[in-house]
Design goal:
This protein folds into two domains: 133 residues, Rossmann fold (3-Layer(aba) Sandwich); 119 residues, Dihydrodipicolinate Reductase, domain 2, CATH 3.30.360. 34% of the residues lie in helices and 25% in strands. The strands form two sheets. It has a six-stranded parallel sheet with strand order 3-2-1-4-5-6, with helices on both faces. It starts with a strand and ends in a 7-residue tail after the last helix.
């Protein structure tokens, strides 16, 4: 099996899971390098884990890796994607919301023979949505309920003076399109962006976000009406050490990697 060299951008809650698993050995993949905002902290963690991994700047990934996995703040996306795509390589993007205002990255991938991969992440059922999109989807609605603490600091809340402190009942903090949700909550609703990319686009995918003090998990429900099927998807994601991120997100990346090399692929 040919080996794919993997670079991991970001050593937070998701990146650490990926680096550990890649370092332990995944058939067909080898950990080539990583990037982190705080090199000293990242190196101390790698040393403590006894993981040999070169730390470099993301702009240098294309020299060392065939595939880069982005698990960073959305602001870093360009530094990771553009050099890799210029070189005709693959990028796995978790900050799907950051792709919406950057269609030029998709065009660059097309022009240079590269590829952008968006894993399912915290949202199940993207296979069904993508299949329905081959026909005609009439509507897609998504409702997200999150513990209030996980929404603190979201640009939309700060810009509109919305507080989620001290809530004793659910509070609707956003209603609108997936495009606006991704812009206003860049660390919280990449799932909405992924859903819109799989289906009818960010301007027709509608979104509600609730700050709900009664939930401890990130809860998503999706309603799809199409000419081939009408279905409802619901998932409760157990948060990782970062309350904004579900544990299943890193596992989704690992599953997507395995599918790239698998002799049997299950799912669309």
């Amino acid at each position: 099996m040919p080996m794919t060299r993997v670079a991991v951008a970001g050593l937070g809650a998701i990146g650490r899971v990926l680096v550990r698993r890649l370092a332990a050995g995944m058939p067909g993949f080898t950990l080539a390098c990583a990037a982190a905002r705080d090199h000293a902290k990242a190196q101390a963690w790698l040393d403590a884990e006894r993981i040999m991994c070169q730390l470099i700047e993301p702009e240098a990934f294309a020299t060392h890796a065939d595939l880069a996995i982005e698990c960073t703040p959305a602001s870093v996306l360009e530094r990771i994607c553009r050099p890799m795509l210029e070189a005709g390589k693959q990028v796995m993007v978790l900050s799907a919301g950051a792709l919406l205002p950057r269609p030029d990255l998709v065009e660059l991938a097309k022009a240079r023979g590269g590829q952008i991969i968006v894993p399912s992440g915290a949202l199940l059922g993207l296979d069904a949505v993508a299949a329905a999109a081959e026909g005609k989807i009439h509507s897609v609605r998504m409702t997200t309920r999150k513990p209030p603490r996980s929404l603190v600091g979201a640009p939309y809340l700060e810009a509109n003076g919305i507080s989620v402190d001290g809530l004793n009942a659910p509070k609707l903090v956003f209603s609108g399109t997936a495009r606006d949700a991704a812009a206003g909550f860049p660390a919280n609703v990449n799932v909405a962006a992924a859903l819109s990319l799989a289906g009818i686009g960010p301007d027709r995918t509608m979104m509600e976000i609730w700050a709900d003090p009664s939930v401890e998990r990130n809860c998503h429900s999706v309603e799809v009406e199409s000419d081939s099927a009408c279905f409802t998807l619901s998932i409760e994601n157990i948060p990782s050490e970062n309350p904004r991120t579900g544990r299943i997100t890193a596992l989704s990346v690992l599953a997507a990697l395995r599918k790239l090399k698998a002799p049997l692929r299950v799912g669309t």
